[in-house]
């Protein structure tokens, strides 16, 4: 089938009546919108845990080539963990494995913990997650329920492994969500008290200044993720937990 040239198409359009031209334009717009909608639908169709499949598969491939040591401390969660490039330097006394992925939520971790964490057979699993969950519109109750599901899944598979939750710290860009942040921290802290295999690191105030608000100088340009100085303070808080022998 021969595709008409732009010139012949223009000549054909010029012969149309006004109403015909309008119908032709509307048809073209409709086709374009359908194409855009199809692309957007395809992008939005992967919105659950499956959107992190490539990240998890990459960890698995890496571990097949270089198996992680048994009994290490696995740090997992969302971008605060994923972007913690100085993890090993900040915690020199700990054999640390970074298993942070994407801008994930606790529900994503529940989905992938069997592949991401449990095969490492860690002595400790450290979780820092929940902020993206709240930001997406989930209630504190839902996020807390997801955390309990994660805790139960880890403990059921690895009863001798300790689970540690690092409290969320408020950021400049999400300061409006501080009430939910504090409520989730409190729920996890109180829950952890009921188990000798679960601990809580209070890191809420790491990002706060004397005025009780997030310090902009501790964050990158997005005012969400820690910069080097933010990670220095964050790392020091986590290091103090391990050095105290709280475990």
Topology summary:
Elements lengths: L5 H9 L3 H27 L8 H13 L7 E5 L1 H4 L4 H4 L5 E5 L5 H11 L7 E5 L2 H5 L4 H18 L4 E5 L11 H15 L5 E4 L26 H16 L4
Parallel strand pairs: 1-2, 1-3, 3-4, 4-5
Helix pairs in contact: 6-8, 8-9
Features:
five-stranded parallel sheet, 2 domains, 10 helices, globular, 10% strand, alpha/beta, Rossmann fold
Task: Describe this structure as you would to a colleague.
The protein is α/β, with parallel strands linked by helices and 247 residues long. It folds into two domains: 6-44, no CATH class; 49-243, SGNH hydrolase (Rossmann fold, 3-Layer(aba) Sandwich), CATH 3.40.50.1110. It is 49% helix and 10% strand. It is built from ten helices and five strands, in the order αααβααβαβααβαβα. The protein has helices at residues 6-14, 18-44, 53-65, 79-82, 87-90, 106-116, 131-135, 140-157, 178-192, 228-243; strands at residues 73-77, 96-100, 124-128, 162-166, 198-201. Strands 2-1-3-4-5 form a five-stranded parallel beta sheet, sandwiched between helices. Helix 9 links the parallel strand 4 (162-166) and strand 5 (198-201). Helix 6 (106-116) packs parallel to helix 8 (140-157). The longest helix is centred in the N-terminal third of the chain and has 27 residues, at 18-44. The protein is globular and about 80 Å long. The N and C termini lie far apart (73 Å). Residues 31-45 have low confidence and may be disordered.
Question: Summarize this, please?
Answer:
The protein has helices at residues 6-14, 18-44, 53-65, 79-82, 87-90, 106-116, 131-135, 140-157, 178-192, 228-243, and strands at 73-77, 96-100, 124-128, 162-166, 198-201.
């Amino acid at each position: 089938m021969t595709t008409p040239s732009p010139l012949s198409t223009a000549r054909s359009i010029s012969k149309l009546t006004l109403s015909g031209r309008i119908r032709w334009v509307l048809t073209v717009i409709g086709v374009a919108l359908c194409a855009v909608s199809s692309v957007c639908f395809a992008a939005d169709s992967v919105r659950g845990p499956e959107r992190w499949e490539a990240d998890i598969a990459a960890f698995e491939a890496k571990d097949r080539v270089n198996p992680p040591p048994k009994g290490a401390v696995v740090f997992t969660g969302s971008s605060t963990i994923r972007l913690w490039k100085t993890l090993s330097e900040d915690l020199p006394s700990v054999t640390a494995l970074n298993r942070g992925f994407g801008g994930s939520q606790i529900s994503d971790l529940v989905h992938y913990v069997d592949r991401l964490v449990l095969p490492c057979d860690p002595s400790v699993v450290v979780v820092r997650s929940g902020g993206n969950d709240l930001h997406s519109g989930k209630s504190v109750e839902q996020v807390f329920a997801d955390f309990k599901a994660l805790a139960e899944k880890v403990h059921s598979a690895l009863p001798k492994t300790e689970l540690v939750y690092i409290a969320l710290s408020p950021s400049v860009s999400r300061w409006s969500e501080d009430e939910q942040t504090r409520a989730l921290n409190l729920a996890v802290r109180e829950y952890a008290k009921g188990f000798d295999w679960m601990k809580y690191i209070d890191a809420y105030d790491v990002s706060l200044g004397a005025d009780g608000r997030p310090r902009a100088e501790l964050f990158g340009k997005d005012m969400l993720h820690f910069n080097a100085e933010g990670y220095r303070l964050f790392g020091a808080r986590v290091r103090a937990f391990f050095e105290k022998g709280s475990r």
